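User: My collaborator sent over this chain with a note saying "see what the structure looks like." That's all I know about it. Can you take a look?
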Amino acid sequence: MDVILLEKIANLGDLGDKVTVKSGYGRNFLIPFSKAVPATKDNVAAFEARRAELEKAASEKLAGAEKRAAEMSEIELTLTAKAGDEGKLFGSIGPRDLAEAITSAGVTVAKSEIRMAEGPIRATGEYDVAIQLHTDVAATIKVFIEAE
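Assistant: Without extra context I'll predict from the sequence alone. Here is the result:
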């Protein structure tokens, strides 16, 4: 299935690229979430007419993500949680908890933007947490977990 991308998608292409994807990926993800349109003659012509508008929106989105990343680089979070004698937490701290803490620190972050490669935090200590704000923009914050 050929589609025209309406935004930059990692490992696939940039705005305006005509790419071939599997039918299910196009029908079930790209097209319903307005990330692409089918590559018909009418859609190609309509896209070319809207190209400047879409590129402007994409650049504004990128600038907003870069601004948020700059604000986030100054944040160091300290969270407290119940823990045992050896520093093991009763429970865990996941993306939702971190998103709420970062948002309360002044920068709005969705839990889907937080990338925790090792999974939820289950022990006290210092952690670096990656935040993917845009396809091209990522930030890292330091999180300190202390026992209550």
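A starting point for your reply to your collaborator: Strands lie at 2-5, 18-20, 36-38, 76-81, 88-93, 114-115, 121-123, 125-132, 138-147.
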